[in-house]
Amino acid sequence: MDDYPLLNLFWTMMWFFLWVLWLMLLFRVFADIFRDDSLSGWVKAGWSIFVVVLPFLGVFVYLIVRGGQMGSREHEWFRRRVGETGPARGAGQADELTRLAELKNKGDLTSEEYERAKAKVLAA
Question: pTM of whole model > 0.70?
């Protein structure tokens, strides 16, 4: 360890983390390319070839051209995924009605307040 100074260790760690950061960015760009349903297969193939053949230039050009909407495309993709596999709408209502019934049984809600809250939950 004496022949490897602390500054060299710092530089090695910095380059390693930059390399990991670069790989994460590269995979994020690939994920965005293939998640975007508005791109045709040829456009996806073109971007993929560009990113594979000239990785640094390809990723930076992709970020300049299409990077502004990457977040919204990812958000939309996750929203669709959760919508397909998420809990049913009635499950939230059932939980809320159970909570209201418990509050009524404890005496925290009057019968009138309970009925009003119940109607509000069922209307939503």
Answer: no
Contact 59, 25 (CB under 8 A): yes
Average pLDDT, the chain: 85
Report CA 78 to chain centroid distance, whole Å.
6
Distances in Å between the Cα of 95 and the Cα atoms of 30, 50, 120 are 40, 51, 14
pLDDT in tens, 66-85: 888 888 888 888 888 776 65
Query: What is the distance between the alpha carbons of residues 113 and 116, in angstroms, rounded to a whole number?
Result: 5
- Where does 36-110 have alpha helices with state H? 41-53, 55-66, 70-85, 89-106
Nearest Cα neighbor of 38 from 63, 70, 78 is 70
How many Cβ atoms sit within 10 Å of the Cβ of residue 45? 12
For CA atoms 62, 63, 66, 70, the dihedral sign is: positive
